[in-house]
Amino acid sequence: MKRTERRQLKENELATGLSRFLSWVRKHEKQFMAIAIALVTLLLVAVGIRWFVNYQRSVEASYISQILSLKAELDQKPENLAQLEKLAGKGRYGRIASLVLATYYVEKNDLEKAEKVLAGVKDRGRDLIHYQILDLYAQVLSRRGELNRAVEIYHQIEKEKPGSYPLDVVLFRLAESYEKMGQNDQALNVYRQLQMEYPNTYYGYQATFKAMKLAAGK
Prior knowledge:
By secondary structure, this protein is mostly helical. The chain has a domain at 1-66. Helix content is 79%, strand content 0%. The chain has helices at 3-27, 29-72, 80-87, 94-107, 111-119, 128-143, 147-160, 167-180, 184-197, 202-216. Helix 3 packs across helix 4 (94-107). The radius of gyration is 32 Å and the shape is flat. The protein starts with a helix and ends with a helix.
């Protein structure tokens, strides 16, 4: 077969193959369009979600900054207290305002107001803020002499084992509550648990001395 004939044959085969491909594409044009639209939609959704997440983070950071500024200037601007009270418990970030407000009341030794604020938000969510609120609520109860209720809350946190909150802090305060109640055996058990499970943390280290002191007094 001559070279020109072979070349023509290849060109014909290529043309035929291309024609068949174009015919197949036209036949499945609707499916291709549907896939393309789906991919574009997914891309737009992904971009939208990323934008929304970044926007939410920006709003949250701005809100937290506002709340902390209000608290930091309370001594110079007593009127800020009314703004904090208004923000507490309301809206998406109301728990943060409640936590900051309750912290202020604890610092001023107004435990009754602190407990009231925390009681209104202590059962919302299961994130870091939630466990910070529960911990502070238990501390307030302990300082008010309601040790049994404080112990219940610490046990609740321990049972839920939140990954977002340090359990060694909770266990140490639980042991201290048992000590205040005169239940030294339970306190000693918790201190020893801290020694074993958190030996390299501050509270694990402190638990060692607490355990030695309790054991020596038995």
